DNA sequence: GCCAACGTTGGC
DNA sequence: GCCAACGTTGGC
């Protein structure tokens, strides 16, 4: 089983929105970056766990945990010109973009801020705090996962 | 709002 | 295939 970090802007889709969904499950659309897509396509599996990360906001932070609810499948929002992430080049017969379903697991009482992550020397190797950290889906090492869960006080 | 660090596009 | 121009991300 693998661990991930997935970014979402709280102004667009906060963790509470995922929790409020039917069966606390929703599709994770709008990934329009090949590297992130390849992570989903090649490495992400049903049952993997992912941090829900609030990005591009006043206090960027890991705010909770979700579970990957199914393997990657075509992102249908790419086919709809009314959608924000419409991509005319994604052919329904040969979809360019993929998405997965995610299920809410837990919201941290104490979010683990980017600031506090940066302050942890042990987490200095995390992709989140290194260059090339703009990917909206990042792999997380098991040690890093446990460290952050502990920082959240969730053991 | 600024800007660094990318990724993508398209002319050549 | 190169690379300049442009667009996006996301912390600050």
Annotation keywords:
seven-stranded mixed sheet; 30% strand; DNA-binding; globular; 155 residues; single chain; alpha+beta; ph1033 like fold
Largest sheet: 7 strands, mixed
- CATH class group: Alpha Beta
Distance between the termini: 19 Å
What is the strand tally?
7
Task: Determine the number of helices (DSSP H or I, runs of at least 4 residues).
Answer: 4
Output the helix-strand order. Answer: EHEHEEEEHEH
Runs in which pLDDT lies below 50 for 5 or more consecutive residues are none
Instruction: Tell me what portion of residues adopts beta-strand conformation.
Output: 25-35%
Q: Provide mean pLDDT, rounded.
A: 94
CATH homologous superfamily title: ph1033 like domains
Number of domains: 1
Structural class: alpha+beta
State the CATH architecture: Roll
General shape: globular
For this structure, the CATH topology is: ph1033 like fold
In helices, the fraction of residues equals 10-25%
Structural Rg: 15 Å
Task: Give a written overview of the molecule.
The structure is a single chain. It is built from 4 helices and 7 strands, in the order βαβαββββαβα. With 155 residues, the protein is α+β, with helices and mostly antiparallel strands. The protein has one domain (3-72, 99-151): ph1033 like fold (Roll), CATH 3.10.590. Strands 1, 2, 3, 4, 5, 6 and 7 form a 7-stranded mixed β-sheet that branches. It is globular, with a radius of gyration of 15 Å. The protein binds a DNA duplex (12 and 12 nucleotides) through residues 7, 9, 32-35, 55-57, 60, 114, 131-136.
């Amino acid at each position: 089983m693998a661990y991930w970090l997935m970014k979402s802007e709280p102004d667009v889709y906060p963790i509470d929105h995922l929790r409020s969904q039917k069966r606390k499950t929703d599709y994770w659309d709008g990934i329009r970056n090949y590297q992130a897509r390849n992570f989903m396509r090649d490495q992400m599996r049903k049952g993997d766990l992912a941090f829900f990360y609030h990005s591009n906001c006043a206090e960027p932070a890991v705010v909770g945990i979700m579970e990957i609810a199914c393997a990657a499948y075509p992102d249908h929002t790419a086919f709809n010109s009314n959608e924000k992430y419409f991509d005319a080049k994604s052919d329904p017969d040969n979809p360019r973009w993929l998405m997965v379903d995610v299920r809410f697991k837990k919201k941290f009482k104490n979010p683990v801020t980017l600031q506090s992550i940066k302050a942890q020397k042990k987490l200095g190797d995390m992709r989140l705090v290194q260059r090339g950290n703009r990917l909206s889906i990042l792999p997380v090492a098991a040690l890093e996962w446990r460290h952050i869960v502990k920082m959240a006080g969730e053991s």
